[in-house]
Amino acid sequence: MAKSYEPLNPNTDVTTTRTLLHEAIPLTGTIISGTYGTWPDEGNIKNFSHGMFQSVYDYPYLSSSANHIFDITVGYDDSSALSESLGNHTQNGKKIAIYNQFSQLLVGYNEAGNAVEIFESDLDITNDDRQMKECVFIPFSRMLTKDQIKKGTFTIELGTSSFDNAMGTSSAHSGNRIKLQDLKASSAGDVGTAVGGEYGVLFDATGGVGTLNTSSHGVVFYQAGIVVLSASAFNASMPDFASGASTMTGADAGTGPARSVDMTLKSSSISGTCDAVRHRIYNISYNNSTEINSTIYFCRMPVNKFNYSANPTYTSASKLVIKNVASDIPVTYVTTIGLYSANNELLATAKLSEPLRKDPTNEITLRVRLDY
């Protein structure tokens, strides 16, 4: 128990800081599809009886070592041309519900408040000029995104035509790719704000930074850790994994008949469409952000204080054991700092790496940081 206290001046002895830590998160396509089996027996892909989304793990999901990476699902707005013919569309109601759920969560309702906003691949969700009515949704695990995805770091590389069953690495299809990046959020600080937080537009940067054009095919919501891809990114045929028959040959044999992206979204199940999209992912990379808030206390020990120890072994027969003669100055060694409330209740302690000598001839200031 402390015998003396030194008050902290909130104006000069206490300050706060905020630090952002970043980690690079690389997700290769081989982990997403191929490492732990080929379709339909992929051990790290978990499908559910409700059939509304898939979960992707970094290891077979039945293992206790597996970590959840992201979910993937698809949907379209009820004003989309894909939702017009209810009788011919697989899981039509579920696909519309999924779109509405993400729209409500991320972009909210329109001005009238009677319908959810439609996703757009620009920074103004009210002008209706780049609407994304058919989308792929990829919510990343909070374990990977932490507090948010760092702006200007997200990249996803997709195959845009038919591909082989393993991963699309066949030389015949290696050139049919598109790389989407939120590069403008990095270079110009251009980000939009919606109900779900800040978001950046994913532009076509297939040829590198110098060839960035105005073609946009999705958005990334940084705080939510959710990527919304437009079906426009897939500009060619997509094999339908839900079908058992195959009309392809060579590297594409066994993947199902080639279909347009609209046909796949309309006629395939959600799980089947997720399989087709997931097998077209070559790489995903981004940096996450962890925000650390700190309160720093400057604990000052003036020359005339803390020169006596509360340790009972400090004295013997009412004499200081560290003094050989009466004229010697008292010496103590600081090992611990205690932070107390206004009622002298101990709230936190900080241990020094080594004892510090304190006597009436010196003054010590110790910096104590509390992270939260």
What are the key terms here?
single chain, 372 residues, mainly beta, 2 domains, 14-stranded antiparallel beta sheet, two-stranded antiparallel sheet, 6 helices, 20 strands, 12% helix
Gist of the model:
With 372 residues, the chain is mainly beta. Helices cover 12% and strands 35% of the residues. Strand 2 (45-47) and strand 3 form a beta hairpin.
What is the fold's blueprint, element by element?
Layout: E1 14-28, H1 29-32, E2 45-47, E3 54-57, E4 68-76, H2 92-106, E5 134-139, H3 142-145, E6 148-149, E7 155-159, E8 177-181, H4 183-187, E9 192-194, E10 197-204, E11 216-221, E12 226-230, E13 238-239, E14 258-259, H5 261-267, H6 270-278, E15 281-301, E16 315-316, E17 319-320, E18 332-340, E19 346-358, E20 364-371
Q: Give start-end ranges of low-pLDDT stretches.
A: 163-175, 240-256
Count of DSSP-assigned helices: 6
Q: What sequence of helices (H) and strands (E) makes up the elements?
A: EHEEEHEHEEEHEEEEEEHHEEEEEE
Quaternary structure state of the chains depicted: single chain
- The end-to-end distance, rounded to whole angstroms, is 26 Å
Portion in helices? 10-25%
Radius of gyration (CA) equals 30 Å
- Strand coverage percent: 25-35%
How many strands, which pairing sense, and closed or not: the largest β-sheet? 14 strands, antiparallel
Give the number of domains. Answer: 2
